[in-house]
Design brief:
single chain, alpha+beta, four-stranded mixed β-sheet, 9 helices, 14% strand
């Protein structure tokens, strides 16, 4: 996930609450984020902006949750929208609360609950008792998306095929060579 470890379960809970609610982002009047003490007190995690760099936004639970709600997805592209008024509005209506049970469960579990409240008072909440880790399919999908952008579709697919066949290879030099040759092909002379 493209966010600070402490922000991940809150972002995942926000996405699940959004899907459960069937709200459009502009119908959300309040966002309540319940999480554990360490997440709220880690430097940058409770920051509300303004954000001038993507890394600042990635560290912020408020930004991550608001961007997830505004975009309807947890994606790397969310962190390129630092001046998005929809994200800023959702950050402004977000409230943090420490949940004692979540604090006691940490570090074994990284729990979060996100409650969305509409303008007419409807509430939808989703609770994560721990961060949901990415499975192999999600990792491969994210790799292909990033690699295709940087290297092109053919190179990305070739590298993924080679990674999938690593168990049958003596070493990873073919993958490194593929990355190096592609990288060399995309450089331009100054």
């Amino acid at each position: 996930m493209p966010a600070c470890n402490f922000a991940q379960s809150a972002c995942q809970a926000a996405l699940a609450a959004l899907r459960k609610s069937d709200f459009s982002p502009d119908e959300i009047a309040a966002v309540e984020v319940d999480t554990y003490e360490a997440a709220l007190n880690y430097p940058g995690c409770a920051a509300r902006g303004p954000f001038t760099r993507p890394l600042q936004a990635k560290m912020s639970i408020a930004y991550g949750v608001a961007a997830t709600l505004a975009c309807g997805a947890i994606e790397e592209e969310n962190y390129a929208r630092l001046d998005d008024p929809a994200i800023a509005r959702l950050i402004d209506c977000l409230e943090f609360r420490e949940d004692g049970a979540f604090t006691r469960a940490f570090p074994g579990r990284q729990a979060a609950r996100v409650t969305l409240v509409s303008g007419d008072g409807h509430r939808f909440a989703h609770e994560m008792d721990d961060v949901a880790f990415a499975d192999a399919e999600l990792i491969e999908r994210r790799f292909l998306k990033a690699a295709e952008t940087a290297l092109g579709q053919a190179a990305a697919n070739d590298i993924l095929t080679r990674v999938r066949q690593l168990d049958g290879q003596a070493d990873s030099s073919a993958i490194i060579g593929q990355c190096g040759s592609v990288q060399g092909d995309t450089k331009t002379d100054d």
